[in-house]
Amino acid sequence: AQKITQTQPGMFVQEKEAVTLDCTYDTSDPSYGLFWYKQPSSGEMIFLIYQGSYDQQNATEGRYSLNFQKARKSANLVISASQLGDSAMYFCAMREGGSSNTGKLIFGQGTTLQVKP
Amino acid sequence: DVKVTQSSRYLVKRTGEKVFLECVQDMDHENMFWYRQDPGLGLRLIYFSYDVKMKEKGDIPEGYSVSREKKERFSLILESASTNQTSMYLCASSFREGNQPQHFGDGTRLSIL
Q: Mind telling me how many Å the CA of A71 is from chain B's nearest CA?
């Protein structure tokens, strides 16, 4: 069965430093996609970055990058130069693959990040 | 920009009531989803729809039903609300292709008293 695990319930980082949020996944499907979302205290879910299982390079979007290690089944989110506005809950999610390909996502439990001034 | 609009940010209802949560998207997305979010459990899929009048159960469909009469609108129905359905409800939509992200509404905090 597909599964997403985020082992860090909470993280602290000093402003302007980089931080890595961990995500491991489990799937037997060779085709899958990995997503990261940010959820501020206001509640909305904001899409940050996507990595496909066949992508050769790690995905990057501005200050966000994804450290994709396929053999280890990990897809860690790296936030560089943290800002106070980065304080939020972060979710890792995996797209269900295979012939169904419905676009359904499986979410991890989330990691709460607090950026200290 | 993609806009997913949920009808209410906060809602208070009583046990036994029939509750309707509405979601509208403006990007012509084929897929629409309803999730509930509880502390420590992440997001859990209740129902999803990949086309008008089509629906499939997610992981926790018990006590819920859905309706999709038009492509842009996906409604979640609590047939007889119970206190254990107090939660944050999130609607999302996406294109059918699997590498497309889901776009979320702002969420509805539902309290059942």
A: 21
| Residue whose C-alpha is closest to residue A21's, from A109, A104, A117 | A109
CB contacts, 8 Å: A95 with chain B: 98-99
Q: Which helix (H) or strand (E) holds B104?
A: strand B103-104
Instruction: Give me the half-sphere count of Cα atoms (radius 13 Å) on the Cβ side of residue A4.
Output: 28
How high is the mean pLDDT in each 10-residue block of chain A (117 residues)? 90 97 93 94 93 92 96 97 97 77 84 96
Helix (H, G, I), strand (E, B) or coil at B83: helix
